[in-house]
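Sanity check

After download, print the first record. It should look like this:
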Amino acid sequence: MSERIVKLIYEGEKGERLDKYLVDCLPEFSRSRLQSMIKDSCVFIDGIVTYKTGQSLSPGSTVLVNIPPPQTTDLIPEDIPLDIIFENEDCMVVDKPAGMVVHPAAGHETGTLVHAALGHAPEMEGIGGEGRPGVVHRLDKDTSGVIILAKNDKAHQWLQDQFRLRKVDKTYLALVDGVPATPSGRIEAAIGRDPRLRRKMAVVSPKKGRQAVTEYELLEAFPEHTLLEVHPITGRTHQIRLHMLFIKCPVAGDTLYGKRVGDIPLKRLFLHASRLQIQLPGDPDPHTFEAPLPAELEGVLFDLRENN
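Expected structure tokens:
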């Protein structure tokens, strides 16, 4: 497979770091992977190769990225059952259970969605590279619901472009502690690393983080909790959880950003990717994929309704 060339026109503010900009434009790659591409002479600014990961960009600059072909990995496919919602030669749509990590990472070298996907479709090896074959977007470990994986390079590029250009409609169901100030709203608050605890993310000033936008609508109100339909416009790490905390309504069961000890019986986040609308390669009309609310979350709602 040959390398892929991506052409970008920088339209942001003067002085943004090159590696930070590329993370926003090419979300399927980690920052460290993109930094390696820069150091390996794969990135050009206005026709000149650059080796500086922190090089400042100027508005109107043309950035060319020569993305190397996928490399084979040493991942071992695993025979893990998957709840497949849809599958064709280009992609696979899965209802991911809570507790499953999407791709290998420190502490999660086996048992991931990637391992399971390779067990089901071995031809996915190397798609997307860096030990994350087929990964286009992510869900947190304790978030359940719809996720799409690419099965070939062409589909991977197409699907990642849909996410990068914000042509994907993502819908989540979230039970939050408390009641939002308004029954519907739009949250605009930048997200970056927590300066005090690097393993966490935080709402930060625009200069220290990336733009993040979330919209929500109230579906059902309880005395101390609210069921929301949430639409993340951007796709930052822990975005919904942080934006709900930002409006003082943390996601129920979120012990990292919300209450350490909740007042309802939850062993996971009450956050579920319920619907994904996306245009698939070669199809002019968007497809909508849905995943029903898991039984343990339906049980929580049943109890809340019974006690209301």
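If your output differs, re-run the checksum step. Summary of this record's structure: DSSP finds six helices and 15 strands in the chain.
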